[in-house]
Each structure stands twice: as structure tokens, then as C-alpha cells.
Design goal:
The protein has 341 residues and is of the alpha/beta class. Helices cover 26% and strands 24% of the residues. The radius of gyration is 20 Å and the shape is globular.
Length: 341
């Protein structure tokens, strides 16, 4: 519904076209701060109304110009509420979004393109979106008064973040929680991760089928689990931890997308309003006795969190960093930092 720049640049949306249900998109324009990666990873977007003129003091560019700067196609005039109801009932369809300057479309060829797409099941997309080089991340959360914070890194515990398609606001939250952060590609070996002397390990979000990414990620994670170091996973990181524990994942009918998803923390009974972006879920019944559910979706009862009973490891399916969306779950980053303490 909101946060169009953040959503289109979220690496977890790789290979997908986004339908925005809020009718007026473009109100706040575009700016270089509200992005979650160096480039958009979604393939395009579907809108109800023509792109709105920007009306916000932070805007530096019209959203239409921002889309064009990345050759990102969009279509307007679609009844996105009706489309949403159709997706709820029948699952996410495979579609082609095409642009032809001359207005001439080869409809049979486009239909065949849609039919030929294999779908997300069995697709490892993480390898297409993670950063290729090991790097440090030192930027903290943004504020209206001061922009992005740049805290002193001296004396902080070291967190190695394994990048399967990490959103920048996750890394900012890790810094703001008190970590010094090093980001490594998703196929970095356990030996190379441990050679960086981490005090804690983070497993990021990312796109695609977790079972496909797990063919190389699971052995790495299983080795990291044996170290006894604190580990925190979000989204794909949550799913990979579930697989590494011996559990199963499955493809959902339409997945959970966008903001305002109610999630219940089982230990406290507290309900958090969360942002989500996932098409796969961990089967809670498949988890071993030493891994317990910690959060569940109040929409459909699917597993939204898990934790080990015998080591400092936990994960959530939703996106506690928001960006866009509610910030009810920011406390999870502080909880991760407290595990190190």
C-alpha cells in the first residue's frame, strides 16, 4: 500500500511485478534516501491511477521520472482492488508487463512468454541479488533532524551479516542496536565467516525458493550453528534456519505482502503489526523438539518466528526493520544485541 521506492528496491521482490492497492502512488515523489538497495529489483508495477504529482518536502524527483531512470515499466488504469481479490482467491498469477513505444504488441508471443515462466518454486534468486564483495556497513537509522546516523564503531561487538538480498534498513538497525557490521555474500563459507571473528551472525532476507538457496546455504548455516554464537535470521534467513534445523518449507498460495500484518508473540501474547514479503513459509510441524515456534500470523496461523531452546538462535518471518511499514518489531534487534551481551 505504501513505500513504493522501498518496495521496488527490496531485493526480496526480485522476479516479481508489484500491484499497489492504494490508488494514489507518487504522492511523495522520489529521493535517494528511500531505497533499500543500489537498484530496483522488482520487474515493474501495476497502479490504479496515473502517477500522482509529488507533494512532499523530501521529494527531489517525480516518481515517473524515477521509474524511467531505471527502465522500469509500470501500467496505470488497472482495478488493483479487483486484482487483489482475484489473487487472494486464486494465488499470484504469472503475468507479462510489456511496453511498446509504437503501441504494437505481439499478444500470442507475450502469452507464450507468460506460460513459459517456470515460477518461483525451485528458483534460487538470492545469488542474483546479493553483493559480490565483503564490505563494512556503518550507517545507522535515519531521522528527520539529522538524516542517517554515523555512530562511532569503536568497542562494538562484531556482527557478520550474510547477504541473501539484504535490505539496507536491516543493516541500519543492526548498527543502531550497537553492532559493528561486516556484510558477506550469501555463499561465503563458514570458515571464511568465522575467520572474521564475529561475535554474532545475521542471516538476511532475500528472494526465491529457500529450498533452492538452501542447497549451498544449509551446510554453511549448520556449521555456524555448532559454534554457539548468537544467530538472528529474517525472512529468507528465517526459512533457511528452519531448513538447517531439519524442517521443511512450502510455497504459499499468494504469500504475505506489504504492511499491517498482525503477528502474535506467543511468549507474551503481544500482537505486533508488521511488514511482510514472502511467498514461502516454514512448516511448524516439521521442526525438531529443540526448535520452538515464537510468533504466528493472526491472518492464517502460519509460522512467523522460531527459536532454539539450547542455543542463542532465533528468527522471524516478518520484516522488523519496516521500511516501509510499522516499527513495532524494532525490539528484535535490541534482543539480538542483548544475546551477545
Amino acid at each position: 500500500m505504501t513505500g513504493y521506492q522501498e518496495i521496488l528496491t527490496d531485493p526480496s521482490y526480485a522476479g516479481q511485478i508489484i500491484a499497489f492497492t492504494f490508488p494514489h502512488i507518487g504522492n511523495v515523489g522520489a529521493n535517494p534516501q528511500d531505497v533499500e538497495a543500489i537498484t530496483p529489483f522488482a520487474l515493474g508495477c501495476v497502479l490504479r491511477e496515473p502517477i500522482t504529482q509529488p507533494s512532499n518536502h523530501r521529494s527531489v524527483q517525480h516518481f515517473d521520472a524515477w521509474l524511467k531512470s531505471y527502465d522500469l515499466p509500470a501500467i496505470t488504469g488497472v482495478d488493483t482492488r479487483a486484482l487483489t481479490r482475484r489473487i487472494r482467491a486464486g494465488g499470484a498469477p504469472t503475468v507479462v508487463l510489456a511496453h511498446a513505444p509504437d503501441g504494437v504488441f505481439d499478444l500470442p508471443a507475450l502469452a507464450e512468454m507468460a506460460r513459459a515462466w517456470p515460477g518461483l518454486e525451485g528458483m534460487d534468486l538470492a545469488k542474483d541479488v546479493w553483493q559480490r564483495q565483503t564490505s563494512t556497513w556503518e550507517q545507522g537509522l535515519w531521522s528527520l533532524q539529522g538524516g542517517f546516523s554515523t555512530p562511532d564503531m569503536a568497542g562494538r561487538p562484531h556482527c557478520v551479516a550474510v547477504d541473501y538480498g539484504a535490505k539496507r534498513n536491516i543493516l541500519r538497525n543492526l548498527v543502531s542496536a550497537g553492532f559493528r557490521v561486516t556484510v558477506v555474500p550469501g555463499d561465503t563459507s563458514a570458515a571464511d565467516i568465522l575467520a572474521l571473528a564475529p561475535d554474532a551472525i545475521f542471516l538476511s532476507n532475500g528472494p526465491g525458493d529457500p529450498a533452492a538457496t538452501g542447497t549451498y546455504a544449509i551446510p554453511i548455516i549448520q556449521t555456524l550453528l555448532q559454534t554457539g554464537k548468537p544467530i538472528f535470521g529474517i525472512c529468507l534467513g528465517h526459512q533457511l534456519l528452519g531448513l538447517a534445523a531439519g524442517g521443511r518449507t512450502y510455497k504459499m498460495l499468494q504469500g504475505h505482502r506489504g504492511a499491517n500484518h498482525p503477528v502474535k508473540e506467543l511468549a507474551s501474547g503481544k500482537v505486533e503489526i508488521t511488514s511482510m514479503n514472502h511467498g514461502f513459509a516454514v512448516d511448524a510441524e516439521s521442526l525438531p523438539a529443540n526448535v520452538k515456534p515464537t510468533h504466528v500470523s493472526l491472518f492464517d496461523g502460519t509460522l512467523c518466528g522460531l527459536a532454539w531452546t539450547d542455543r542463542p538462535v532465533f528468527a522471524v518471518q516478518h520484516h522488523p526493520e519496516a521500511s516501509p511499514g510499522p516499527q513495532d518489531s524494532f525490539y528484535l534487534f535490541r534482543r539480538f544485541r542483548e544475546l551477545v551481551a
